Amino acid sequence: MHTRTSAQLRTDSVRSSLQRLCQERPAYQQLADVFAPLLECAELLREELAPTCPALPPHAQTLKGQGIPLLIGNDLKTWDQALDQSLERMAPVLETLLERPGLEALLRDQMQRSGRTPADLVLPLLQGDEAAIKRLATELEQDRKDRDEPAIDPGRLGFFLHHVLSPVLSTAAAMLPEPATWGDWKEPVCPVCGCLPAFASLSPREPAHTEQIVSGGGRKHLHCGLCGHHWRIRRDACPGCGQADSEQRELLYAQDAARERIEVCRACNGYALCVDLREYDPVPALETVPLALLHLDMVARERGLRPLFRSIWNVLPQD
Length: 319
Hints:
The protein is built from 10 helices and 9 strands. It is an alpha+beta fold.
């Protein structure tokens, strides 16, 4: 077992986290086997990118104060080389997972003919431009007709591009200072990339001023589903609509797992998943947490609730 340390949190490895998940919940074994190659490949890629990945630009105080994420308006060209490396490394795993061989070749052919770069392909994800993803899927669909290959589904293409962009942005975001330096960020989107969080967490216990003193932890954070950044929010308010009335909020705990819960907001009829990291030793790799909480997503959906934050785990590509 080994641990990873970033400016934000010290966590276990993906492999150890998934192994522990399957020991505790054997029903997850098949799902873990399917997604482990993807998560492990991204983890290794982040380690490879770390020494040379360009840093994020400074976040202007005025923009931060207005609730404008750091990367809004950025064309991502600074990370073109890293994105090209990510495309090369992640594509084989993604093509296997999505049962869509040849997708990298189609994308590279499209870039060569159109003059696009990897940054151009993934930028619509940062902008939330689903129409652009559909247009790219249509272009690729035209290209593949002469190759006797499966059709290009926009949802699967978005999933593919998400996992090309995510390791690069996660590497850059890990270089940022502690989340507390964001100040009073009140938006329900990531202060770095502007994307939606995947889950909420209560911070683990941490050493305080001396080795003999350990803080109680329990500060609430949201964890970005794209760049992996996590930032502090109010513990007593809905992370989606900001409702702080206790009568409008309900906590549903997992059976035999009080460290996992569904936070329900009656004001917006939404829910968010939250884990209490004080109850984990070691803290699992955060990218494995949404996968490990799928059973809570199912319970919430059965109750007619809607997820406050769409993620690749609660909105998986469908056949």
